[in-house]
Amino acid sequence: MSLQRLERPRIAADVAERAVEWLVELQSGEVSEQRHRAWQDWRAADPEHERAWQRIETVNQGLRGLDTPLALAALDAPANRNRRDALKLMLLCALVGGGAVSLRDSEPMLALGSDAATGIGERRTLRLADGSRLDLNTASAVDIRFDAGQRLIEMRQGEILLEGASDPRPLRIHTPQGLVESRGGRLNVRLLDRSTRVRLFTGSADLLAGGQVQALEAGQQADLGRNHIDPPLGADEDSVAWSRGMLVASQMRLDDFLAELSRYRRGHLGCDPQVAGLLISGSYPLDNTERILSLLPRALPVEVHSLTRYWIKVHPRTTG
What we know:
This protein is α+β, with helices and mostly antiparallel strands and 320 residues long. 33% of the residues lie in helices and 33% in strands. Strand 4 (141-146) and strand 5 (151-157) form a beta hairpin. Helix 3 crosses helix 4 (47-64). The longest helix has 18 residues, at 47-64. Residues 116-205 form the FecR protein domain. This is Iron siderophore sensor protein. Pfam families: DUF4880 (PF16220), FecR (PF04773).
């Protein structure tokens, strides 16, 4: 039964957010007939809306069966703003399921058995036994296996930047999609949802996946799938500015910028589709994501709305 729940398609964050807003409004006891019809129209407008509503009703009933202090405080406290905010956050976390909050907060559990790991927003530099330098980005975990025949780094999650030392043993990085064999140099490996992205800045490397082998030269990047390797493209050094504590954007779409920024903070960070395509440039210090968000309205015609510090959405700037 739990397996079936895990396999259900996730509900998009914006649809989940709207479903939660409807539920809280309907439970307030101050809903006009016009608003009630608007809620019914929203449900009927899209099958995804109805699916979200059916799920949120189930989630709401489930929360009422909890006896944790947070649940009791949110469900039983007076109907003020704090109560509504706590209830919204709990419902959003539960409704999105394996997404923004619950999955990100479970990543440290995945890293418990790793040789080296970082938490959300943390970066770490290691000097390996052969003299190689290994940088771990936010929420990353690796196992390190060096023996007489090879040097192997197994990636469990996240992203690394590796500067390999000279050594007669092959230096290999194993990922869920394939294998990277470095012949010296500096390279970046990042695990994506269903692929691995490899960027090579100096040296040379071979990529192996699905029976294919792809040589990678300095200044190139390529993505590995389970059964294919994409053609190489140019690699951008700005992509690893995180190793210097920076997020560098050059005419980056706002939704892509926020997706990158969200890797360094807990909770959900998204934007309204109306502003998703706005372009942003600049260098931003990753150790203060709140500061970055506070500066967005100065750079773009947007407003940053915070349901709580863990659920933030960027909207178009209102006039007047």
